[in-house]
Amino acid sequence: MIRLLLYLIVILLAIPDVSWGQEYVVGSISGPQGKLIGANVFWKSSNKGSISNEVGNFKIKFNGPDSLCFRYIGYKSICVWVPKPSTVNIKLKESAITTDEVVITGAKSDLTRGTQMSTQTMSLQQIEELPSFLGEVDILKSIQLLPGVQSAGEGNSGFYVRGGGPDQNLILLDKAPVYNASHLLGLFSIFNHQAIGDPTLIKGGMPARFGNRLASVLEIPTKNGNFNKHEFGGGIGLVASRLYASGPILKDKVSYLITGRRTYIDALAAPFIPDDSQAKGSAYYFYDLNAQISAKLSDNDQVKVGFYLGDDVFKFLNKGSDISLRIPWGNLVLQGIYNRKFSNKLNADFYAYYDQYQFALQSQFDQFVIGVSSEINDYSLGSDWTFLPNSNHLVKFGVQLSRNKYLPSFAEASSGETDFDTGEKNYLHSNQYAAYIQDEWIISPIFTVNIGLRYSLFQHLGPYIRYDQRGENELPIIRRFGKGYIIKTYDGLEPRLAAKYSLTENSALKASFTQNYQYLHLASISPVSLPTDIWIPSTSRIKPQNGQQYALGYFHELSAIQSQFSIETYYKSMKNLVEYKDNVNPEDNLNDNVDNQLIQGKGYSYGVEFYFKKKAGKFNGWIGYTWSRTRRIFEELNEGRSFPAKYDRTHDLSLAATYQASKKWTFGANFVFGTGNAISLPTTRYFSFLDGRVLGVYKDRNSFRMPNYHRFDISATLRPKKNENRKYQSWWVFSLYNVYSRQNPYFLYFDAEGTLGSNDLKLTAKQVSLFPILPSVTWNFAF
């Protein structure tokens, strides 16, 4: 594979530079916190422009002599005179907090400029002005407002993309993946918006540099600290408070950024629980902490070292029955990234990270104690290279090596001084290797392709204990594999292809094909994503997931009204998806392997997405609509017939908007509507004298629908008049969640009325809803 990559690089180096008669201005854009991604670059006279790429570089056709302007939200815009094709390196300065109208003109976005499709980058500034749940800005809930993305449930920050499961989303904090991105059982995400930059979601046409997921990539960059001045700020809301600090350690050389957030639900509730209450001492809280040091070693060398720690802790006490329960879970991420600019044509990132996710449940009843735990440890090294051999090629290539250690689930129990035999901790060890290369090739002024190839290899390694189950009353055959023994190997090639055909200067057709392998699975019994879900890698019995996606779209820039429109259609097929067998519980795997409880099947999804976005002006926002179908097929389920996935949603509509009414007031609103989730309900009920209980007769799996989901939220941001002589600033955010108090379904259950003996037993399906109208207020400050 390495030899193949070298051959491809040599071929690309030999490609001649065909500039189609055009000369260019090239350069870089940065700010006090480092490179600026997605900054707008445009000629003042014609408004024709470009944007900076992921390393802060830009290239624009020479249109001069003319003034070349640079603009980025939150920074002071500037224009420089460019008399001839040349290199221009720009450093923008941050602007003070302002409520002046934000107008972005002349910036032709990647919507029609590049081959990338099915991709949206969301402005963090706009996310902060949209209504938020209980005052907590949440990028994962904002992602759910995009077409092709469905929410995991009422108030939940989990999401599903184009028919894929929650495990098929690659969520990256810089370079490191995050396995559980939620606090409070999914009601909040773990990402403090004061620590991150603009998030980017890729739903299709996944570039070759990403792998090990089938559905999507969510890139969440962390901010660098300010290299020039110290900044402090935070916010106080109804359920949580946050603080941040940023500034130079060595001016223009080394900076720091520290952010922290913690809920005080436990502290607020404690005074209202009587001392004689059986639940006295019960509590819940979560916290997260981000810290980062960034250093500019030279004009060509930059380093940043980042740290994230976040935990949820739930404690329940019942003094009257001697019952106690403690459930902690959380993430730890340590990573370092070294960026080296070898020349104007070659740039590289070298990175290393350690990623850990842990879940535990510890319960006690009298002297009986039981504990359940799961764990993921991920150690990775890698490098990503960017090479511009000429003006018509942008080549990216890289490698990654990972060492993983999983504990899907482990139970232990004791009573007094007696420990029960629940077996050994049976870790699953694996190695993963990946190499990729891709080339964005401008074949002609109207036709561009992105050709990519990724190779991935997975090894399941010892030490490991394999339980081969036999008959119901027979003991299993136990096989032990030694440390480093290669139990099973999987590998595969993952071709990627994307193409763009320009119809006019402002419109284009795009198409893409991706093939992906995923060596990690998430097994869940619950209808919503919970920390108790089990992560398990591929084994000798669980094959890796693989999928193919085809997408076609039309994209149009409406320059006159500073808007954009797109329509995309897609078809996705998936194999080796995972489900639990019928009548199986995760706790059944004592002296057994988790994969003995799982089955594999296939699925497919197809749909059409419409997206309209107004990018600038006092009134801006977007409308997204998706029509889709998602089906699953398992031989052992539903008699082998296809059935809707639980998150299949035929219609999904989202509207999000912000309006700057004055220099003080900005209003936000969003409305969502979605077809009800698919569920399984019994068609009839009968009393079993053998079991002594009422049993149900079920039709096809997931053949019923919950009521349709819809909700309307509003917000208002008040920024007092700015005082240029005062460094201290503060502002208020007010919001109403679920304005008309829609009783949206969270789950359904059956309630029995009457008695069987009197022959008037009646079973009625009832709905549980979580949130009525919820007001919130948050006070923010900065100095």
TrEMBL record:
GO-annotated molecular function: siderophore uptake transmembrane transporter activity
Pfam families per UniProt: CarbopepD_reg_2, Plug, TonB_dep_Rec_b-barrel
Any one of the GO BP annotations: siderophore transmembrane transport
Topology versus the membrane: Multi-pass membrane protein
Cellular component, GO annotation: cell outer membrane
Organism field: Luteibaculum oceani
Main location class: membrane
Protein name listed in UniProt: TonB-dependent receptor
Keyword NADP found: no
Similarity comment: Belongs to the TonB-dependent receptor family.
UniProt superkingdom: Bacteria
Residue ranges occupied by any TonB-dependent receptor-like beta-barrel domain in the UniProt entry: 275-723
Localization in the cell: Cell outer membrane
Sorted UniProt keywords: Cell outer membrane, Membrane, Receptor, Signal, TonB box, Transmembrane, Transmembrane beta strand, Transport
Keyword Signal listed: yes
Stretches assigned to the TonB-dependent receptor plug domain: 115-213
